[in-house]
């Protein structure tokens, strides 16, 4: 149902072609925000239908979060077409090889770091000056429960998601005095194109680690991001928020 929880919010949402990013962009629009959705991939069906239904309120731009020039271009598009962004959702991420540490390559580790950490840093660096000038802003970074809890194998993914949490905390403490709230959402097992790359055995293990006994749909993650972007979360900064079906409690 449409509402005005995000009225006057102008947001950039990365990794928005599908999954959590697409669900977030769509729910932002329903809540009254103007949104630039970005991704290196083409929009999936959910986002594409929303783009057709909300011209001028929801835009899409191909963008690589690891590219400084792409971030500059995204900021320019957002500012010229929607307004200066006062919300950023750093959702883009990659899973990596799934290898244990002794089998991971330096190149593999660096590539996952580029997307999961450097991309997040570049996004914040791009929008924060405008937020400082405005004296307000909200940034929501999407990490993972595996950045908080130990799990075997997939050393690159877990390491970079842990770094994303600390990057969020650092930014949250640094920029709170400027009226900028930075928070981090930690999803558990969510049914997204990325999670569908896990093996059947890994999927069973993930379900076994989830007290609710099922994976989440992206639409179940997006409301937490909507809340953190809204003025309802006005006293929430440098926080980490589990949306993991109870996984981190085990």
Describe the protein in words.
The chain is of the alpha/beta class and 250 residues long. The chain has a single domain, classed as NAD(P)-binding Rossmann-like Domain (Rossmann fold). The chain is 42% helix and 15% strand. It has helices spanning 19-30, 45-53, 68-81, 106-134, 155-175, 200-208, 218-229, and strands spanning 10-13, 34-39, 58-62, 87-90, 137-142, 180-187, 240-243. A 7-stranded parallel sheet has the order 3-2-1-4-5-6-7, sandwiched between helices. Helix 1 links the parallel strand 1 and strand 2 (34-39).
Output the radius of gyration: 17 Å
- The structure class reads alpha/beta
Report the CATH C-level class: Alpha Beta
Shape descriptor reads globular
What are the low-pLDDT stretches, counting only 5+ consecutive residues below 50? none
* Distance between the ends: 35 Å
Describe the strand arrangement of the main beta sheet, using strand numbers.
Answer: 3-2-1-4-5-6-7
Q: Major sheet: size, sense and barrel closure?
A: 7 strands, parallel
How many helices?
7
> What sequence of helices (H) and strands (E) makes up the elements?
EHEHEHEHEHEHHE
The name of the CATH architecture is 3-Layer(aba) Sandwich
Strand element count: 7
Task: Provide the β-strand percentage band.
Answer: 5-15%
CATH topology-level fold name: Rossmann fold
Helix content: 40-55%
Overall pLDDT score: 95
Question: What would CATH call the homologous superfamily?
Answer: NAD(P)-binding Rossmann-like Domain
User: Number of domains in the coordinates?
Assistant: 1
């Amino acid at each position: 149902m449409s509402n005005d929880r995000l009225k006057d919010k102008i947001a950039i949402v990365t990794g928005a072609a599908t999954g959590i990013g697409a669900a977030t962009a769509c729910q932002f629009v329903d809540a009254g925000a103007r949104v630039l959705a970005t991704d290196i991939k083409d929009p999936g069906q959910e986002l594409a239908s929303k783009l057709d239904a909300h011209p001028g309120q929801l835009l899409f731009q191909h963008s690589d979060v690891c590219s400084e020039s792409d971030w500059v271009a995204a900021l320019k598009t957002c500012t010229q077409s929607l307004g200066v962004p006062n919300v950023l959702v750093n959702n883009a991420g990659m899973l990596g090889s799934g290898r244990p540490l002794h089998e991971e390559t330096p190149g593999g580790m660096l590539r996952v770091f580029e997307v999961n950490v450097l991309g997040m840093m570049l996004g914040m660096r791009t929008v924060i000056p405008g937020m400082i000038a405005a004296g307000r802003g909200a940034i929501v970074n999407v990490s993972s429960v595996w950045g908080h809890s130990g799990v075997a194998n997939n050393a690159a993914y877990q390491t970079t998601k842990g770094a994303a949490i600390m990057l969020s905390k650092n930014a949250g403490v640094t920029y709170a005095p400027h009226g900028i709230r930075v928070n981090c959402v930690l999803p558990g097992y969510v049914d997204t194109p990325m999670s569908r790359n896990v093996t059947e055995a890994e999927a069973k293990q993930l379900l076994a680690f989830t007290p609710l006994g099922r994976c989440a749909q992206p639409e179940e993650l997006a409301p937490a991001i909507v809340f953190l972007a809204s003025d309802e979360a006005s006293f929430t900064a440098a926080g980490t928020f589990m949306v993991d079906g109870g996984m981190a409690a085990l």
